[in-house]
Amino acid sequence: MKEATMNDPAWTYLADRDLTLGPVSRVEPGEFTHWRTSRDQDGVFWAVIDQQGSGTNTLSQAVLEEFSRILDLIEQRMPKALVIRSAKRDGFLAGADIAEFRDVDDEAAIRERIAAAHGVVDRLAALTIPTIAIMHGYALGGGLEIALACNQRNAVDGTRFGFPEVQIGLHPGLGGTARFTHLCDPIEAMSFMLTGKSIHDRQAKRMGLVDAVVPERHVEAAIAAAVRGDLDQAHQGLVGRIKDSAPARRLAARQMRAQAEDRAPSRHYPAPYALIDLWEEHGGDLDAMKQAEIASFARLMLTDAAQNLIRVFFLRQKLKDLAGKDAGIAQVHVIGAGAMGGDIAAWCAWKGLRTSLSDVSAEAIGAAVGRAAALYEKIAHGDRLKIRDALDRLIPDTAALGVTSADLVVEAAPEKAELKRKLYADAEPRMKPGAILATNTSSIPLKELREGLERPERLIGIHFFNPVSRLDLVEVVTHDGTDEKVAARARAFVGHIGKLPAAAGSAPGFIVNRVLTPYLAEALTLMDEGVPPEIIDKAATDFGMPVGPLELADQVGLDIGLAVAEMLKRELDWPIPDAPQWLRDKVKARELGKKTGKGIYVWKDGKAVKGHTAKRAAETSNMDLADRLILPMVNTAVAVLREGVTDDPEVIDAAMIFGTGFAPFRGGPIHYARQRGAGEIVSALNDLARRHGPRFEPDAGWSEGGRFEEDGPIAHETP
After folding, report:
1. What is the DSSP letter of 99?
2. 202-244 tens-digit pLDDT
3. Which residue of 259, 283, 368, 677 pairs with 337 in a disulfide if CB–CB is 3.0 to 4.6 A?
């Protein structure tokens, strides 16, 4: 049989297709920077967005102004139909350019800008010709609102859709709240906007958000069918109209507020409640809801929550940019198939890397593969081929043969320096030239682990957080002898697998565990003082933490928390209290928390069972408790910056938000210090030190003057 080549017709048919972008030889007149315009032989006008200077299309003011000029052309010439498409291979449109709002502090100016944008989108919606959005990759936020203004929405297989605005303290602002709830089941549409989560093409088709889902090779046929009127268009239907009635909206709104309060308390996150109010009051009236949306969006934009959450958006982008591009890593070997090692291997395989997994226990490897299969079932959205391919890439390796061919070897053994060094002594001589040796240690300084290595310059820390599949942060830890090329490749690897690299120096605990430990230690001390765990955790969640410190300790594992605390106390001569005896007794009895079903709490069905004090905790709010928990974190963050574990305060904030869930609406511990005021925090720390001991004494960084101060150094003398 003749071997297929890339020139064969069959190969051409099966290969990835170029995007269908309309005719290149029939360009319409008009000079555009961010759009391409053309008209095909059937009289269909193509408007293809390809934003200059960006790998992603956003609805910047310049992009919208050019689109308005395109609408001028269409209104003058009235083509047979309009197709809107993206030339970016990764996706359609990613929403508004949030950077344009960062320096706007006038509500009237924001309303004026949003109203002008509404005017452009309303002109699109008012066209009497077929208007067809062809979406691929992703359609998010304002981009999806543009599609909603079209009368036909088609998606290429695999497209994701989302309104993520609530995650930055806002709600859709280009008419999307009104158009979406009028097009689809309004309860389902509201739930979609309130969570900010993305959905895939099949779900979007089922709910009526898109009219057709087609492979790329059928895009032209789908457009022709839409122009002929052969494709059914989604409509709300009778049930949707009933749900959009005023009595139904009032009932549903009460339920929505109760559900939102559990996820995003109204005192911290106003956006979900503004969206619910908007729909409850105006949901039956498209035009009224659009107008009210403008004012609501402008008010939200100036809230502290929105400004801080927008800042978090840019912190995420900053870490993405630190990742770089090319890691040169195609094959990974993971040593240790425990909870962390197995999950690291599973994630690498899911992200397309050939990944071998070794352990002294074949049973542990089998359990890790089983967990991987369960994870893939959850995240594959029914794509059996993706599950199969990921499992094919995950290779059980009882003999650790993968060490010899891996570009990256990740050690994920228990937190014992001697054990880790023994594993390195076995692995390093077998690694190929240029391969990187990484440790997933959560706290051990690399200077301890590099002892005995022939090539210490290629040892680096790549510290994942649990659960690996859900937490985005990965600390990339260097020691004073790390090759910078190794560090750059490690950061690029982290970016390649969809995580956020936070660069840190090799100090005990690095960034996250160093800052987090005094928070956990103080919670244990409060328990020793007789404060019920539910009340301690309630003080933290009232501040805005996603879970309380004691529930978090159970999730991490009491054994791990104890080991990290003892190491930090020893290495840093830190004035934190000794671990209580009851904690040591629990660890000895293997009552380690969630993973064993019992720790500080009893765990059932993956949730902590709160005791009889839970009701009392719900009625209690104690600022003193919150300060005792939170201010040690803030104080330690300042110490980490002063010591140069990182020289960037934004990296500390990002690490704590993406690694621990530190109250995102507060912008991170350093940013919280800026907003609350350094003087007030130093005063509070001194007061706590007088009442509770030297562990609360303000770090020298408060009075040294600092790089973490936005508008000049902090230079407060400690009383």
Report:
1. G
2. 999 999 999 999 999 999 999 999 998 877 766 666 666 777 7
3. 368
Q: Which of 66, 165, 280, 591 is catalytic?
A: 165
Long-range contacts, stretch 374-379, CB < 8 angstroms, 24+ apart = 375/343, 375/346, 375/350, 375/469, 376/346, 376/350, 379/350, 379/469
pLDDT digits (tens, 9 = 90+) for 443-454: 889 999 999 999
Q: Which of 134, 139, 171 is nearest to 150 (CA)?
A: 134
Of 28, 107, 145, 457, the catalytic one is 145
What single-letter DSSP state applies at residue 166?
A: G
Q: Which of 506, 527, 548 is the last residue of a domain?
A: 506
Active-site residue, 165 included: yes
Tokens encoding 502:
């936070």
In terms of domains, do 304 and 327 share one?
A: no
Query: Which residue's structure tokens are 């089922």?
Result: 206
Residue 277 lies in a domain: yes
**Strand ranges (E), 479-578:** 500-505
What DSSP state is assigned to residue 592?
A: -
Domain hosting residue 485, numbered range? 321-506
Q: What gap in Å lies between CA 638 and CA 679, rounded to an integer? A: 14
Question: What total number of domains does the chain contain?
Answer: 3
498 inside domain: yes
- Using the predicted structure, report yes or no on whether residue 712 has a pLDDT greater than 50: no
pLDDT, residue 236, reads 62
Q: Is 697 marked active-site?
A: no
Name the residue type at position 28.
E
**Cα(125)–Cα(149) distance, integer angstroms:** 5
pTM for this structure?
0.87
Would 136 be classed as within a structural domain? yes
Choosing from 506, 524, 554, the residue where a domain stops is 506
Is residue 476 domain-shared with residue 545, that is, in the same domain? no
Q: What is the pLDDT of residue 284?
A: 86
* Mean pLDDT of all residues belonging to the chain: 90
Q: Is residue 271 part of a domain?
A: yes
- The torsion region of residue 574 among left (phi > 0), alpha (psi -120 to 50) and beta comes to beta
